[in-house]
Automatic annotation (TrEMBL):
InterPro entries xrefs: Ankyrin_rpt (IPR002110), Ankyrin_rpt-contain_sf (IPR036770)
Chain positions of ANK repeats: 95-127
Species name: Trichogramma kaykai
Keywords: ANK repeat, Repeat
Upper lineage: Eukaryota, Metazoa, Ecdysozoa, Arthropoda, Hexapoda
Protein name: Uncharacterized protein
Repeat in keyword set: yes
Domain of life of the organism encoding this protein: Eukaryota
Length: 146
């Protein structure tokens, strides 16, 4: 595994690509195709709660992905639980959006439900003053029971 060699040679698992402001973990979290590499990065110290250049955490990225991020989200919560490293579920990006705001805007109802079960605060407002309820009302994206 090439990733392991780089990490063994001292590559920082939290290094960012200057052009994008994204870490390897942020990029891989979106695809969940490289589960072993993601797990290796975590075990070598990659911060699953670390923000990218826009203040987004790995969880923000999963919630903003155009692929179904449920597997990635569940993997993130499981790893953080197993390693006693709590997920910052209410972390805010530069616009004040939490992962719940992002998941609602991208209409990922399964992830919205997961975030709420894991303790996401549905009363937090972003920098525009929007709470998750505002996003639901404007987008009319969710069934009444969400």
């Amino acid at each position: 595994m090439n990733s392991m060699i780089f990490l063994e040679l001292g590559q920082d698992p939290n290094c960012f690509v200057e052009k994008t402001g994204r870490s390897t973990l942020h990029s891989l979290a979106l695809t969940c195709k490289s589960v072993k590499v993601v797990q290796l990065l975590w075990k070598r110290g990659a911060d699953p709660n670390g923000p990218d250049g826009l203040g987004s955490t790995t969880l923000h990225d999963i919630c903003n992905s155009y692929v179904d991020g449920m597997d990635s989200a569940e993997m993130l919560f499981k790893f953080c639980h197993d390693e006693s490293r709590p997920v910052k579920i209410n972390a805010r990006d530069r616009s004040g959006n939490t992962p719940l705001h992002v998941a609602l805007k991208t209409r990922y109802i399964n992830i919205v439900e997961l975030l709420l079960r894991k303790g996401a605060d549905p009363t937090l407002a972003n920098d525009k003053g929007e709470t998750p309820l505002h996003i639901i009302a404007v987008a009319s994206c969710c069934p009444p029971d969400v």
